[in-house]
Design a protein that fits this description.
Layout (H helix, E strand, L loop, with lengths): L22 H22 L7 H8 L20 H16 L4 H12 L8 H11 L7 H9 L13 H6 L4 H12 L6 H18 L3 H12 L4 H12 L11 H14 L3 H9 L5 H16 L6 H4 L5 H17 L1
Helix pairs in contact: 1-14, 1-16, 3-4, 3-16, 4-5, 5-6, 8-9, 9-10, 9-14, 10-11, 11-12, 12-13, 12-14, 13-14
Length: 327
């Protein structure tokens, strides 16, 4: 481990509702969460970097997979959030746990395919790694090159498979969530948001998201007061207070706010992608949480049908179910 890696602080315990024991139910929730990332990204793509007013002018209200956007995607096509999530998920499934070197090598192999979209923090870290910087120092080197904190949402958008792999091991789940984030995001705030989000996913798998957002906010207080405050804001915020941006706390707050208030998966996604700005990534993060809550069975079939990565996502989600139940 790098000398720069700090051990996770002691956290207040969070009592979580007993986890689902039924394999079929867990399979539905795991599939829902990972498919939710892909659906949210594909649905939000045409609204990326647009204002709400521009979305209304161009589309009215986005409720269908229309494709297009700044990368001119086909309906159901995905980009970096889904791609990096799959790299991480398949690494966890193949190795039986978190192997940082293996994950970083998969990210680099993906990078070498010249993806359509990638955050500056991720790009700089992977360029540094490709040039010979050790994997555990690449994000620090990126931070030095860019000269500013990188608390973006690029690690939050991909972290859901960690919640699945370490479903029954909260301490390891929290440590790995923070550590995986540092592969590309040196700013600890990004990793702390991943820690909280993966705890929220486990609560959603357990059918008690509403009952645990406040508890997780309390538990995060000693680790990062900013994350704790963001979760509290998600509970209390009015719609006009929600921001859709690449800043990790804006994304976390928007996703939790929408998932808490939405009576369906569809409603949760429509709410956030029509905010515009970083619509595809905020849609992906919201999709992960709403999918954990409502499962694959709660995702509209018309959104799943055109999804280009459906088979690959389902295959790795099912492998993570087997891994979680075996631990």
């Amino acid at each position: 481990m790098s000398a720069y890696a700090r051990p996770p602080p002691v956290r207040r315990a969070v009592a979580v509702t007993p986890l689902p024991q039924d394999a079929a139910l867990l399979r539905d929730r795991f599939r829902g969460s990972l498919l939710g990332i892909a659906v949210g990204e594909a649905l939000g793509a045409p609204a990326d970097f647009l204002t709400t007013a521009q979305i209304v002018e161009r589309y009215g209200l986005i409720t269908e997979m229309v494709g297009g956007g700044c990368h001119n995607l086909a309906p159901g096509e995905t980009t970096d959030a889904t791609d990096m999530m799959l790299c991480l998920a398949e690494s966890l499934a193949d190795t039986g746990g978190f192997d940082a070197q293996d994950v970083m090598d998969r990210y680099l192999a993906w990078f070498d395919t010249v993806p359509l979209d990638m955050s500056l923090a991720v790009r700089t870290a992977l360029l540094s790694y490709r040039s010979g910087t050790p994997w555990d120092l690449a994000s620090r080197r990126a931070h030095e090159i860019l000269g500013s904190p990188m608390a973006g949402n690029g690690s939050l958008m991909r972290c859901a498979p960690i919640a699945m792999c370490y479903l029954r091991d909260p301490e390891t789940r929290r440590a790995v969530s923070q550590r995986e984030s540092t592969l590309t995001h040196f700013d600890r705030l990004a990793g702390s948001a991943c820690v909280a989000f993966n705890d929220l996913l486990v609560a959603a798998f357990s059918d008690d998201l509403e009952g645990h957002v406040g508890l997780i906010a309390d538990a995060m207080f000693d680790e990062d007061k900013r994350v704790s405050a963001s979760l509290r804001e998600a509970i209390e915020a009015e719609p006009e207070e929600i921001q859709s941006s690449a800043f990790v706390l804006d994304t976390l707050c928007a996703a939790v706010w929408s998932a808490l208030r939405a009576p369906t998966f569809e409603d949760a996604l429509v709410r956030v992608v029509n905010l515009g700005n970083d619509a595809d990534t905020v849609g992906a993060v919201t999709g992960a949480l709403a999918g954990a809550r409502y499962g694959e069975s709660g995702i509209p079939a018309r959104w799943l049908e055109p999804l280009c990565v459906y088979d690959r996502v389902v295959a790795v989600a099912d492998r993570l179910v087997d891994l979680a139940l075996a631990k």
